[in-house]
Amino acid sequence: MANKPGGWSDTMDTTEETQWICDQAKDQVEAFTGKNYVVYTAIKYRSQVVAGDNFLIKVDAGEDYDHLSVHRVLSCDGHRIVLRGVEQHRTKDYPLVPFTN
């Protein structure tokens, strides 16, 4: 849970919802990175409640790990998934920290 309103949660194991968000963002991630992912499995995440929800998601990408920054817009706007950024070539133990790119 977040320590304060609008703060980021602790890092948690992925859920079905987190994998679904990852799957929805996959085309955007592939366009951003120029890669076609065979292995693409969410393993950890953090969340932040804002006007919608922000997610930092650690993804097993096969040879290494990617970190995704994803925004899910409010339900009244259709719960669209918007990729905010990708950090590539991370390790399994590299911490999930907010980033922009």
From TrEMBL:
The organism's superkingdom is given as: Eukaryota
This protein's UniProt keywords:
Cytoplasm, Protease inhibitor, Thiol protease inhibitor
Which stretches make up the Cystatin domain?
A: 3-99
Subcellular location, record wording: Cytoplasm
Q: Name one Pfam family in it.
A: Cystatin
What Gene3D superfamilies does its record include? 3.10.450.10
Q: Where is the signal peptide?
A: none
Asked if Cell membrane is a keyword of the record, the answer is: no
A single GO CC term for this protein reads: cytosol
Question: Which GO terms of the molecular function aspect are on file?
Answer: cysteine-type endopeptidase inhibitor activity
Protein family membership: Belongs to the cystatin family.
Could you tell me what this protein is called?
Cystatin A
Q: Please name the gene that encodes this protein.
A: CSTA
